[in-house]
Design goal:
Layout lengths: L1 H37 L3 H9 L3 H28 L8 H16 L7 H6 L8 H32 L5 H18 L2 H5 L6 H30 L6 H17 L4 H16 L6 H24 L4
Helix pairs in contact: 1-11, 3-4, 3-9, 4-12, 6-7, 6-9, 6-10, 9-12, 10-11, 11-12
């Protein structure tokens, strides 16, 4: 009897999560549709895009060129994570990272990313350990984004003026808090054993470097579409956007919509052109997700 009650409770929770997930999807795209429909100056927007100057095209080229660097950093982190399980060359790690996009794109919350990578391991018997280490790497990246984003978020929503003191606080916390918090992972995941002694900080630095590339890409693609963020506020706006995206649960179908919603809320402070913001975020999604996905589908075992 108790088992039946437990199963019913689990099913109710699963049903509630399913409903909330689809409500989030509908709400995200409904809000985007409303903001895009409310914009009345599409001819001017089209003229602006057609008149993109040489600097704008350089920004777009820079954003595209940063994509391989972004994924190279992820491949190096994947290689570091698997160093004690299944040593890989950089080229092998890159192929597995690209193939991971195929698994991530067709599963909720990108859960298929690391299992898809693990199917390309030289030793398929180590896939469980590989997936576990991949999840650990994901936790470190999430922790990096949260630690570097919470002070900018506080300043952004409190309406504080930007300044060197706030920027210094972000830098200090980005370096200082991991010193205090990351070692706790050793206590939370004791099974990882000696990995923490050798590679903990290397994984964190690789995650921090990749996060920096994400931020630079977003800044460049926003410039392409005419969304100009003052340099003294870049440190605040872009980390806030990535913090909100990271903390919002989603699924592949809702990803572009949720990113667009948060982008309008954050970057709407700097322009009234909601379509410019949406197109910029969508272009970055194409660069960092769709292009690697296409490359990933060409990977062979």
């Amino acid at each position: 009897m108790q088992e039946k009650v437990y199963l019913c409770s689990v099913k109710r929770k699963e049903r509630l999560i399913w409903i909330l997930k689809w409500l989030l999807l509908v709400a995200a795209y409904a809000y985007l549709a409303y903001r895009l429909a409310a914009y009345r100056d599409y001819p001017a927007l089209w003229q602006q895009l057609r008149a993109t100057d040489a600097w704008g095209w350089r920004c777009l080229a820079g954003c595209l060129l940063l994509m391989p660097l972004n994924l190279l950093l992820e491949a190096l982190k994947w290689r570091t994570l698997l160093a004690g399980i299944c040593p890989l060359s950089v080229a092998e790690a890159q192929r597995q990272v690209y193939y991971g996009f195929v698994g991530a794109f067709v599963t909720p919350y990108r859960l298929g990313d690391y299992p898809a990578r693990a199917t390309r391991l030289p030793d398929p018997n180590r896939w469980k350990e590989a997936v576990a280490m991949g999840m650990y790497g994901s936790i470190v990246l999430t922790l990096t984004i949260v630690l570097t984003g919470w002070i900018p978020a506080f300043c952004f929503f409190a309406g504080e003026a930007s300044g060197n003191l706030h920027l210094l606080s972000v830098i200090v916390l980005a370096v200082g808090l991991p010193i205090c918090l990351l070692p706790l992972l050793k206590r939370w995941f004791p099974a990882l054993g000696t990995f923490f002694k050798a590679n903990l900080w290397l994984v964190f630095l690789q995650s921090l470097a990749r996060y920096g590339v994400f931020c630079l890409q977003l800044y460049l693609v926003l410039r392409v579409f005419g969304v100009i963020i003052p340099l003294e506020e870049v440190w605040m706006a872009i980390p806030v956007y990535y913090l909100l995206v990271t903390l919002t649960p989603n699924m592949p179908a809702a990803d572009a919509g949720i990113r667009g919603c948060w982008a309008i809320m954050v970057f709407g402070r700097y322009t009234d052109c909601a379509p410019c913001i949406v197109f910029a975020v969508f272009a970055l999604w194409i660069i960092n997700t769709v292009i690697p996905l296409i490359v990933g589908t060409t990977q062979r075992g």
